[in-house]
């Protein structure tokens, strides 16, 4: 069947729907709903069997839904209506939620229901939930709805009742630092993650706060800034404190959107002297766990070590890479047989931090520093020969982040992961030793295809191509536990010792054929030329991505229908959960 996806952006859910529909044998193409572009004319040109809207901020025109069956994915249970459905669910502390696939008609979110699915809603950020529990429920409902439509016999059921809730505006998101408890503040911050953020007054300026994590020990006067940690800011609430990882400056009238940045970097010289409070070890040699927020953590279970990390949006700045490399080198001093890299529930990595680069005094120099820091990290993984290294992807990976994962001996993915091993959409040749790691997994021809095409790849498809060694079917919150179980079993296998013994010899053989330094030099030469050429497309593409500028037309590679065998994509155009941008 030919399915046309209509979306406001090619975001994470749209990519996953695109990939999984192709896995099921459907032809799939995309049209973006853009200002000044006739969506009716675009849809008419495709002549699809079905129109599906995974993420749409505006209503479908009557010309479209009157001529075609149009199914809309709404991130709320049956009867829930409105543009801030998931935001309100998180802010209200709902513990169960759902996704509804309904037919578009004249009233927003009020059409007949083709399928629905329920899901838990753990106390986490909206964007994390959107890529996790909500995405899983959405795919369950979408695949069922498409199957029902293809049957030609299913009659969708009308909504007997519904409750339309208004847009959640900034005045509804305000934090009262003098009165709000930590739980109140966290719900407000999580409901605005990653868009639109929570507007707040701080140090004489207006900022949008992004992300929020509980602090277990630090205390102070409500509203007081208490400490920093790895770029994040700790602020006291009425009964405790929270960590805020990122800030974004308010957009000036007529100006571009500012990038989200590590909080201390955004504040720069506005920030008063505050203590830098490092996180205690996630667990010590005695196995005692310490509960506090940190972007990087380490613990051990028997002969398996687990180096976890979670950076906002999956973006890894120069500082992120260097901190993770330091932690990796420390982990190598431990007497483990298997070292698991990652294992969290959200993004593994999306490569270099385009926001930090855009905000730098010299973006070319920061780009160069960032890509070299990513390469240093990948090289450390590639040259580890005294234990097995596993990349555990509980969330999506793109561009250099996907290539970082391939540096490990094995790659494990949660079944809902979308991989994007392509740099092309950012105008880059790519690095992180992909010219070494990718061909040895999939062969030169497919490696070339995966880095030049730009369509999403599901974990299942990646496994079929040899890009991934294992897929793990589990809920997002269970991936870490499943990874620990599998890693412990791997460490105990008799064959693991012989695999480790053979790693050093294999690395020496490969080094003799072509040294890693030669791969790095060949990859970085075109990257350097691009970074330091002010006319290179990379700079305009980066700026547009960071500022969330909409394209003037749907990119050609999305408009062309595709089916199996699948290819791959570059970075998502926008990875926010749905809903109008209130900034």
From TrEMBL:
Classification via Pfam families: ECH_1 (PF00378), Formyl_trans_C (PF02911), Formyl_trans_N (PF00551)
Residues covered by the Formyl transferase N-terminal domain: 39-131
Ranges for domain Formyl transferase C-terminal: 168-249
Single Gene Ontology MF annotation: catalytic activity
Region (Disordered), start-end ranges: 563-583
CDD domains according to UniProt: FMT_C_HypX (cd08701), FMT_core_HypX_N (cd08650)
Species whose genome carries this gene: Streptomyces venezuelae
Protein name: Hydrogenase maturation protein
């Amino acid at each position: 069947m030919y399915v046309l996806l209509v979306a406001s952006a090619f975001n994470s859910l749209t990519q996953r729907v695109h990939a999984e529909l192709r896995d099921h044998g459907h032809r799939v193409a995309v049209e973006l709903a853009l200002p000044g572009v006739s969506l009716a004319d675009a849809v008419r040109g495709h002549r699809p069997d079905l129109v599906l809207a995974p993420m749409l901020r505006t209503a479908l025109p009557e010309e479209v839904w009157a001529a075609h069956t149009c199914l809309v994915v709404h991130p709320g249970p049956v009867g829930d209506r409105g543009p801030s459905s998931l935001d309100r669910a998180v802010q209200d502390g709902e513990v169960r939620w759902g996704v509804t696939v309904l037919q578009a008609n004249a009233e927003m979110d009020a059409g007949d229901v083709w399928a629905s699915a329920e899901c838990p809603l753990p106390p986490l950020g909206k964007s994390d939930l959107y890529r996790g529990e909500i995405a899983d429920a959405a795919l369950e409902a979408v695949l069922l709805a498409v199957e029902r439509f293809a049957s030609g016999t299913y009659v969708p059921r009308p909504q007997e009742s519904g409750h339309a809730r208004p847009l959640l505006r900034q005045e509804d998101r305000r934090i009262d630092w003098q009165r709000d408890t930590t739980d109140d503040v966290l719900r407000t911050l999580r409901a605005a993650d990653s868009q639109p953020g929570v507007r707040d007054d701080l140090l004489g300026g207006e900022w949008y706060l992004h992300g929020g994590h509980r602090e277990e020990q630090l205390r102070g006067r409500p509203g007081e800034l208490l400490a920093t940690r790895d770029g994040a800011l700790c602020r006291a609430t009425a009964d405790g404190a929270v960590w805020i990882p990122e800030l974004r400056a308010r957009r000036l009238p007529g100006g571009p959107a500012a990038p989200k940045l590590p909080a201390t970097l955004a504040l720069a010289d506005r920030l008063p002297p505050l203590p830098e409070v490092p996180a205690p070890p996630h667990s010590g040699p005695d196995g005692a766990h310490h509960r506090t927020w940190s972007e990087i953590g380490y613990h051990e279970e028997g002969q398996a070590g687990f180096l976890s990390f979670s950076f906002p949006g999956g973006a890894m700045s120069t500082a992120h890479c260097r901190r993770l490399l330091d932690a990796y080198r420390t982990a190598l001093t431990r007497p483990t047989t298997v070292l698991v890299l990652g294992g969290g529930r959200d993004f593994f990595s999306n490569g270099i931090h385009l926001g930090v680069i855009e905000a730098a005094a010299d973006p070319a120099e920061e780009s160069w520093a960032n890509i070299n820091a990513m390469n240093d990290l990948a090289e450390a993984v590639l040259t580890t020969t005294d234990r097995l290294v596993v990349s555990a992807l509980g969330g999506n990976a793109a561009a250099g982040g996907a290539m970082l994962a391939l540096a490990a001996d094995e790659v494990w993915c949660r079944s809902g992961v979308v991989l994007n091993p392509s740099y092309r959409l950012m105008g880059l040749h790519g690095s992180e030793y992909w010219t070494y790691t990718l061909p040895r997994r999939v062969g030169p021809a497919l490696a070339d295809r995966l880095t030049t095409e730009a369509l999403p790849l599901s974990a299942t498809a990646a496994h079929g191509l040899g890009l991934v060694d294992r897929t793990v079917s589990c809920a997002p919150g269970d991936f870490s536990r499943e990874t620990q179980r599998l890693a412990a079993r791997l460490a105990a296998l008799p064959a693991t010792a012989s695999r480790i013994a053979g790693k050093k010899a294999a690395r020496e053989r490969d080094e003799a054929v072509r040294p890693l330094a030669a791969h790095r030099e060949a990859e970085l030469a075109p990257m350097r030329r691009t970074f330091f050429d002010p006319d290179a497309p990379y700079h305009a593409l980066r700026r547009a991505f960071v500022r969330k500028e909409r394209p003037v037309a749907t990119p050609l590679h999305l408009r062309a229908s595709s089916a199996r065998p699948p290819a791959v994509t570059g970075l998502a155009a926008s990875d926010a959960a749905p809903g109008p941008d209130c900034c």
